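Minutes, project check-in

Agenda point 3 was the complex the collaborators sent over. CS summarized: two entities, 519 residues total, and the question is how they sit relative to each other. Sequences were read into the notes so everyone works from the same version.
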Amino acid sequence: MAFVDIADASLIYGEDGESGTLAVKDTTLGIERGEFVAVVGPSGCGKSSLLKLVSGLNLATAGRVAVGGEAVVRPLKIVGMAFQNPTLLPWRRVIDNVLLPMEVADGLRSQYRRDPAPFVAKARDILATVGLKGFEDKHPWQLSGGMQQRASLCRALIHNPALLLLDEPFAALDAFTREELWGVMQTLWLKERFTVILVTHDLREATFLADTVYVMSNRPGRVIYTRKIDLKRPRTLEGCFEPAFVDHVHALRDHISIARSS
Amino acid sequence: MKRNKLAEQAAPWIALVAMFVVWEAACVVFKVDSFVLPRPSQAFAAMWEFRQAIWHNARFTFTTTLLGFAIAVGFGLLLGLVVGASAFVYKALYPLLIGFNSIPKVAVVPILVIWFGIGFVPAVLTAFLISFFPIVVNVATGLATLEPELRDVLRSLGARKIDILLKVGLPRSMPLFFASLKVAVTLAFVGSVISETMAGNEGIGHLMLSAGASFRVPLVFAGLLVISVMGVAMYAAFAWIEQRMTGWAYRGDVNAA
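CS then shared the predicted structure for the full assembly.
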């Protein structure tokens, strides 16, 4: 069984189920441990709902969702999350923001309280990896949007999550910063090889980062197309202009237009 | 630039002096009887003449107000936490709170007098009753407007509700809390003076009532001025505390630490 195993899962928002909004319909997909997966699709197609299903923040109305061989029946504790909005706490310094999960995470909290030093070292290390060395003691508003998003990624990874869920984390950034962060994300992933589900509407981003790209249909969201991206790693921005890369993007594009018109 | 800043600092004082000058001039030009509207100079003269009585009563008003306000801060913070942390309690209590806040506090004073007699206790309680509401609303709002994404991040870490409250919710609502204190402390003065006027034997409110009864109108106005000064002073004190405690919410003012 795959690490993340979704079988015929549906998600309906609303109190009584019947009258609610059907956000995800009969979706089946399997994600291997250490795989980088991207989910693309028209806006409002239930991509984010898929993440909620996997994380257990919303439970499947029908079908089955399992992570690591266990059915998801409550919010998982092995995930890291980052969103379009960095949601850093303005009263905490960058390093304290990154360490926030250690203060609240179930199971790690007591360990951190007893001996914070290794975690602080890890936080500094990961901040250095994303290029924020020297900014540890700044407050979030003293950072640019791209830097805040880097810090947000660090916060998502500080507790070594087995599964990283990214909901359009680069969507609010300018084109240059966004492409720069693709590289940062790839570096982080190649180093630790956690499992990633990235929700995005940027096909180049999906192709650059993912091993497998799933295309979802209009709401209610279903997976209508799966494409393996077999480009070698580490991928470079120059590589985005090579025919193989462009072919992948075009193939995805075609299926998105089908999804939009359906 | 420097001159602008100086003008900015001087502006409120100039406005204050201008108000007194216009007031004084208007009284002289239109020959207003000091029985109707005393000139400010007469009010200040009365303030000096009765300085001992004013000092004594101002201290009383100040004490009752701050005591009532302190209770309001504790109670408001606690109730705000409960109301803001739970959508259920929020729904259950909000209409009740609005209803309670709509009651004119003047109408409550006679009840307090029946329960506690006149004087100190009803004044403290009226100050409390009138000033806790904005604190509750602001703390609750700060907690209830937590970003859903951030809540997801914390929930997916297995964070306990109390942790989310203490580490994120409470610090987040602090700027609103301190802003509400400025409003609440001025309201507290309204409350205590109402009570003193209706059922007091001490305090500025009582002093004004007695002065009015014996037609010492300049002294009534002296009392009004004293209350205003106390209100402005407390407002300024809490504005200063607000700046110190939640500087992060006023980005420009905080230095890189």
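Noted in discussion: The first helix of chain B runs from residue 2 to 29.
Follow-up: revisit at the next meeting once the mutant set is ready.
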